[in-house]
Write a structure and sequence with these properties.
The protein has 155 residues and is mainly beta. The mean pLDDT is 92. A hairpin with a 3-residue loop joins strand 6 and strand 7. Strands 1-2-3-4 form a four-stranded antiparallel β-sheet, with no helix packed on it. Strands 5-6-7-8 form a four-stranded antiparallel β-sheet, with no helix packed on it. The termini are far apart.
Length: 155
Amino acid sequence: GLESNGVSAILSDRDNNLWFGTRGRGLVRYTGDRFIHFTEKDSLNSRNIMTVLVDPEDNIWYGSMTGGLGKLEPIPGTGTYRSIKFPEIKRVVSILRDSQGRIWAGTHGLGAFCYDGKKFTAYNREQKQLPDNRVFTMHQDRKGKIWIGTASGGA
């Protein structure tokens, strides 16, 4: 079953599998009849997953406090995944995919990062783009503006 010290995120993929980000048990996929655990032995960067996102290509993006940002890419026809890690983006607590397909990672203490598929762009208090580097949540409105909620207000 879904044994864990806590569940911090839940989502479903295009095959209607449920994915759980857990504290202590890594990522867990529920196929409808069984639970499949992904941990460091599957090249995850942490067992403590804070946030999870699935993109249109069915990649599973995840963030953790200790391991940072990572992605599981499905390998067609195998039922398995290739793990891609972004160790430079640490303490990830929220993830957003915007309408342009960019991935945003909100961190606890380092601001926000936007990944365009090639490079990361940092947004933080030091560059006067955010009121605080502790990012809790992010949202894109209908006009395409990215809203970032921090410990000291929004931007």
